[in-house]
Amino acid sequence: MELKTNVLYYGDNLDILRGHIPDASIDLVYLDPPFNSSRSYNILFKEQDRWSDAQLQAFADTWHWTPQTERAYLDFIQTGPQKVAALIEALQKAIGRNDVMAYLTMMAVRLVELHRVLKPTGSLYLHCDPTASHYLKLVLDQIFGPANFRNEIVWKRTSAHSDSKQGARHFGRVHDVMLFYGMSQDATFNAQHTEYDVGYLNGFYRHIEPETGRRYRLGDLTAAKPGGDTLYEWKGIKPYKGRYWAYSRAKMEQFERDGRLVYSKSGFPQYKRYLDEMPGQPPQTTWTDIPPALGKERLGWATQKPLALLERIIAASSNEGEVVLDPFCGCGTAVVAAHKLKRQWIGIDITHLAIAVMRSRLETTFPGIKYEVVGEPKDLGGARALAAQKPDGRYQFQWWALSLVLAQPVGEARKKGADKGIDGVIRFLDDGGKQSRQAIVSVKSGGVGAKDIRDLKGVLEREKAALGLFITLEPPTRDMTAEAVAAGYYHSPLWDKDYPKVQILTIEDLLAGKKADLPPAKPPFAPAPRIKVKEGKQEGLRL
Predict the structure, then answer these.
(1) CA 322 to CA 311: how far, in whole Å?
(2) Same domain, yes or no: 168 and 65
(3) Calpha distance 31→5 (Å, rounded)
(4) Burial state string for 189-205 with b = 16 or more CB within 10 A and e = fewer than 16
(5) 27 — alpha (psi -120 to 50), left (phi > 0) or beta?
(6) How much is the pLDDT for 36?
(7) CA of 194: how far to CAs of 108, 280, 512, in Å?
(8) Do the bridges between strand 149-156 and strand 222-223 make them parallel or antiparallel, or are there none, so unpaired?
(9) What is the pLDDT of residues 448-478, one digit of tens each?
(10) Is 346 in contact with 21 (CB distance < 8 Å)?
(11) Assign residue 149 a region: left if phi > 0, alpha if psi is -120 to 50, beta otherwise?
């Protein structure tokens, strides 16, 4: 199979990995799989034998033990890599059939595939939290080999939690964990550097050169072992007992000519090391210098990670032109970071809502960007197939259809449920640009009739909305069209134009390029700040 890059895939990442990603074709994998660690441990570890697929929410931040999970578990212990399968079977016997075991089963299957697609020089970063990180490390050790474990990175994602004020009997939970594995000892790694903190600067670089204002520290010029010309006297001074000069006489003379030597009261030389010549401090395994996504970067996505976090990972473990894969890409931070750093990228997500958010983010962040979306319906047959998917096809269809008219889904973006007749909204300014008005969007994937249009008109009246769009997979009846026409028109004072108050749009029409007749509207998602891709090498970023 041929590898496509700069592409967003809609679908189950397991199917995408097996059907579209060749062996040894990826340089870096970052994944942040959803898992509801905010639930109590008693619930997470509760046995679940009778869940049905219909009970699952398409983008809920959790996994459950379902018949599908049971089938995946049995298949994996029979056909998966022997050591990994044995571990999963042992874990199931130890902790039972529950949310945690479902999560580990579904992750093990995918981690085996991710290991397959990585190059020998590739790396994987698994973002998780302490609820399941210890179990995941066992799985990763079996797949990658314990010798290829690089680091457990602790990212402090927030400053403090006041859980104790609500009666919590534990310390504040403020960090996530990233498990970092390489495919081999040859895995790519580019040293990164961060700014020195104030305490370090004041403690070590406390000297300031009067002539230039440059800050510097004093370094030792001796070494514990001899090597070459290291036993000479320098201006009558020898190294301390048991020590040797770290540099040859010729090098010391060069330091003297360059003004790099500073002498103590006893005449002992020390080396002047300027702060502005230092690359910065290498990140350690505890990252406290990257705050969560804030301000204009924040898109309203509950699990959004900051761009700086992904930039550090991508810069450290890949090079320009190489391929970065995020199989749970959510709102697309890894994809944006990869494009900014001039990597090729692949993003996969199982919801059309996430694909819509990523499309909006990419096009706002990088105007004119060229990329491909694979898996979205291209014709009426594809739309029908999407709506018929189990268990959540009609919700996936709804989110996809809303993206066709650039509508914002209502309610919490990751949950399904009662919508009070409103599936999406489109907001626009009117009345001289002072008042925000809205068009309400209703989406139907099944049979439709005039009652649906009357219901939409009732919602418009209840919500005091200006306009209503009715998106339907099936063609409208004559009575539906008559009901829509009877709704009359909305007059826009700002644009001095009349718009049909209720508009029926079929999926077939929308795929053919038809647009809703609306005043200029606000973007459906929070606009991401633009980013200019910088020229020049970027392996050694200072973040």
Answers:
(1) 14
(2) yes
(3) 17
(4) eeebebebeeeeeeebb
(5) alpha
(6) 58
(7) 34, 5, 51
(8) unpaired
(9) 999 999 999 999 999 999 999 999 999 999 9
(10) yes
(11) beta
Alpha carbons within 13 angstroms on the beta-carbon side of residue 11 total 18
Q: Mark whether 314 and 214 lie in a shared domain.
A: no
- One-letter amino acid of 469: L
Residue 66 CA to residue 188 CA, distance in Å, equals: 39
The region that residue 264 occupies, defined by phi over 0 for left and psi between -120 and 50 for alpha, beta otherwise, is beta
Looking at the structure, tell me whether residues 55 and 13 fall in a common domain.
yes
* DSSP code per residue over 88-157: HHHHHHHH-SSHHHHHHHHHHHHHHHHHHHEEEEEEEEEEE-TTTHHHHHHHHHHHH-GGGEEEEEEEE-
Tokens of 491: 């007059």
- Quick check: is 535 in a domain? no
Task: Answer yes or no: is pLDDT of 277 > 90.
Answer: no
- Asked which of 238-242, 363-367, 401-405 is least confident by mean pLDDT, the reply is 238-242
- Residue 403 is classified by DSSP as H
Instruction: Report if residue 518 sits inside a domain.
Output: no
134 vs 141: CA distance, rounded Å:
11
CATH number, domain at 486?
Answer: 3.40.1350.10
- Label residue 255 left, alpha or beta by phi (over 0 means left) and psi (-120 to 50 means alpha): alpha
Report the percent of the chain where pLDDT is more than 70.
89
Asked if the structure places residue 521 within a domain, the reply is no
Last residue of a domain, one of 244, 262, 277: 277
Reading the block at residue 314, the tokens are 């991508």
Q: Which domain holds residue 226?
A: 198-277
- Number of structural domains the chain divides into: 3
| 320 neighbors 342 (Cβ within 8 angstroms) | yes
Distance CA 152, CA 190 (A): 18
pTM (two decimals): 0.81
